[in-house]
Write a structure and sequence with these properties.
Elements lengths: L1 H22 L4 H12 L12 H19 L2 H6 L1 H26 L5 H10 L5 H8 L5 H31 L4 H35 L5 H21 L4 H15 L6 H38 L5 H41 L9 H10 L5 H8 L4 E2 L2 E2 L3 H26 L9 H24 L7 H24 L4 H34 L5 H18 L4
Antiparallel strand pairs: 1-2
Length: 543
């Protein structure tokens, strides 16, 4: 029962932290870390023992799957050059540069272990950056950070596993490691794509036979990242890349017919899981902080001088990571700018290049994946304690905190005076999509031939077709290219939504009254209330 109580307390804290984050002007991850540290204070004394392998298995697959699902694929492809240089080139550059620096700074950390630490410090967290920047980052830069976070989660953790294996076995060959890396990566991607495709085919087969219960399909989606991870690991491929590939593939397969309810439920469930899992990871970091600090200082005679020296080591490592990232971003940015000018292409980001480089540099916040990876370091190596495992966790936790604090300070300063320009291209695509779909609906209704049995039914059918077509013609007016027509149509649309919302709320109040007076049963209440909620959700935000 103690474990159940602990889980419930942590979930409650994750929910409360969101409310506190609205009052305190701090990023949500920092609030959750502080809440965990407060909960682990000796007065409260909540302690959570983590199994590294279980922690890695429970948290990483669903988070990586969700990242792959949500990443805009077209933008990922358009910015594939900068994203790949950040997600692969920068990771290798960081592993080599930071790995040698860590080994030089702290000689007790063997070089392969230093490389493993540098690799696990490479993944970035675009969700934390978005929360700090409050959606003020220019769209191309945000897409680059999202794509980098998605790809370097995989590249950083795969490199981390190779470095960890070299540290455990004491054997490393660059040629063999490179070949193995490619095979493991390609195998992981293939397993994820194949398994996701098979699940999509299974769902299509179920839908075709009328087995379209949303809960059943959502359970398949929840199990898919874990299945992709385990299957790839059993086959000797990368479970991390398999989970990412499964998520990206499933986003294409999620357009099955007769699956509207499933998609609504699926999005809600995954939003909940993503929020809970990210929050639990940062909360666990706070819970582990006292134990991490005690473990680092356990072999020393004095606590505070040891913490000061170790804190300076963390600061030095963080600054080196920052410098390496800036040097790489600046170099690649200048090279890509020269290539775009040579090809006669426009600049992707219309702002000073130096500011863009600093935004990309400070935007490389470390987060949940770094913590999950470093906590997966094994306790033992060849029967002995893993060298400096507690110090590795301390450094990773310190770098996460420093990157969050630095982003909180630097990003608002760098974004000062920059108003995010409206995405006119995206708005145009949205207008075109609504206009063309409305035209298609009108054409389909015009071509529909109704053969009623009598004249009364014929008149009713004509009236219904005219009513439905009028709604689609209203959509065409809303998305008309004329500014005056749009303004008038939007005013009418807003007034209509307000009236519909008022009517829906009146319906809901009457439904509650019927239930209180026992005039309808709970099953009827749930059914009608679900329809009313879906209708209100379709209205969108009403001001």
């Amino acid at each position: 029962m103690q474990t159940a109580y602990t889980v419930l307390i942590m979930l409650m804290l994750v929910s409360v932290s969101r409310l506190v984050g609205r009052v305190i002007p701090l990023p949500l991850p920092l609030v959750q870390i502080a809440a965990g540290a407060l909960l682990a204070w000796p007065t409260l004394g909540l302690h959570v023992a983590l199994d590294p392998e279980l922690f890695l298995f429970l948290f990483l697959p669903p988070l990586l799957f969700s990242d792959g699902w949500r990443m805009p694929k077209r933008e990922l492809w358009r910015l594939r050059g900068p994203i790949l240089t950040l997600a692969v080139g920068l990771v290798l550059f960081t592993v080599v540069g930071a790995g040698y620096f860590i080994h030089w700074l702290i000689p007790t950390i063997p070089l392969p272990v230093a490389f493993a630490l540098a690799a696990v410090l490479s993944p970035t967290d675009a969700v934390a950056v978005s929360a700090i920047a409050q959606n003020r980052l220019p769209t191309p830069l945000m897409h680059m950070l999202q794509g980098e976070a998605l790809m370097n989660d995989a590249s950083g953790l795969v490199t981390f596993k190779f470095a960890l294996a070299a540290a455990v076995t004491g054997v490393f060959s660059l040629a063999n490691a490179s070949l193995t890396f490619v095979l493991v990566a390609v195998g992981g991607l293939a397993v994820g794509v194949a398994l996701s495709w098979l699940v999509g085919r299974l769902r299509s087969w179920m839908v075709a036979r009328g087995w379209d219960d949303p809960a059943t399909h959502v359970v398949f989606m929840l199990l898919l990242p874990f299945a992709a991870y385990v299957l790839a690991e059993r086959l000797g491929a990368s479970g991390i890349l398999s989970a990412v590939a499964a998520g990206m593939m499933q986003s294409w397969l999620d357009l099955l017919p007769r699956q509207t309810s499933t998609r609504l439920l699926n999005r809600s469930v995954w939003s909940l899981l993503e929020f809970a899992f990210n929050g639990l990871i940062f909360l666990l970091l706070g819970l582990q902080l006292p134990d991490i600090i005690k473990a680092v200082a356990s072999h020393e005679t004095s606590l505070w001088p040891t913490l000061l020296y170790r804190g300076l080591d963390v600061l030095a490592i963080f600054l080196v990571l920052l410098v390496l990232r800036f040097v790489w971003v600046q170099s690649i940015w200048r090279l890509s700018s020269l290539l775009r000018r040579w090809r006669g292409q426009d600049e992707m980001v219309r702002m000073p290049t130096a500011r863009s480089c600093w935004l990309l540099t400070v935007g490389g916040v470390r987060g949940a994946v770094t913590l999950a990876g470093v906590l997966s370091v094994p306790m033992l190596m060849a029967g002995d304690a893993f060298p400096e495992r507690d110090l590795l966790i301390f450094i990773a936790a310190g770098v996460i905190l420093l990157s969050l604090i630095a982003a909180c300070i630097a990003l608002p300063l760098l974004l000062r005076g920059i108003e995010k320009s409206p995405d006119d291209k995206r708005r145009g695509e949205v207008r075109d999509a609504w206009r063309k779909t409305a035209e298609a609906a009108i054409h389909a209704l015009e071509a529909e031939e109704v053969n009623p049995q009598d004249a009364a039914q014929a008149a009713l059918a004509i009236e219904l077709k005219a009513r439905i077509m009028a709604e689609y013609r209203h959509q065409l007016e809303v998305f008309n290219d004329s500014a005056e027509a749009q303004a008038l149509a939007f005013q009418m649309d807003l007034l209509e939504r307000r009236l519909r919302l008022k009517a829906l709320r009146a319906q809901r109040l009457e439904l509650y009254s019927l239930s209180r007076h026992h005039q309808i049963g709970d099953d009827v209440l749930r059914e009608v209330l679900g329809e009313l909620d879906l209708s209100e959700a379709n209205l969108g935000p009403v001001k």
